Amino acid sequence: MIVLAYLWPLALVPLVAERGDAEVQWHARHGLVLMTAELLLAAAYLVAASFVHAAAIGLGGALLVSVVAGWAAILAVHIAAIVKGINGERLNVPRITSLVK
């Protein structure tokens, strides 16, 4: 269930199915908060990319590199959260983890 907690919308499964397990509930809420933050970052990227594309078409390559690096970082955070959760620990992401409470 902890693995599902960090697989975007699948975090709803442990949130609903494991109501009695406080640790799984925390990880499910943490996964949902991470997903929301990532979606907000993606939306901000799309807005910024639209403005940059309109202003200077040559910067498109730089934006492509930044989005690939960003998704790699997101994947790394999810893998770290899954590994820590399986080991009975919690991953604390600055400014994000405080929203879980």
From the structure above, extract its key features.
4 helices; 70% helix; mainly alpha
Could you explain how this protein is built, in words?
With 101 residues, the protein is mainly alpha-helical. The chain has one domain. It is 70% helix and 0% strand. The protein has 4 helices and no strands. The chain has helices at residues 2-5, 12-17, 22-55, 60-86. α3 runs antiparallel to α4 (60-86). The longest helix is centred in the middle third of the chain and has 34 residues, at 22-55. The radius of gyration is 16 Å and the shape is elongated. The mean pLDDT is 86.
> By helix and strand content, what is the structural category?
mainly alpha
Q: Say how many strands there are.
A: 0
Q: Into which percentage range does the β-strand content fall?
A: under 5%
Domains, number: 1
Largest sheet: none
Question: Could you tell me the radius of gyration in angstroms?
Answer: 16 Å
* DSSP helix fraction: over 70%
Shape: elongated
Q: Give me the strand/helix succession.
A: HHHH
Q: Quick check: average pLDDT?
A: 86
Q: What count of helical segments does DSSP give?
A: 4
Ends apart, CA distance between termini? 19 Å
Low-confidence spans? none
In short:
The chain has helices spanning 2-5, 12-17, 22-55, 60-86. With 101 residues, it is mostly helical. The mean pLDDT is 86.
Secondary-structure map with pairings?
Elements: H1 2-5, H2 12-17, H3 22-55, H4 60-86
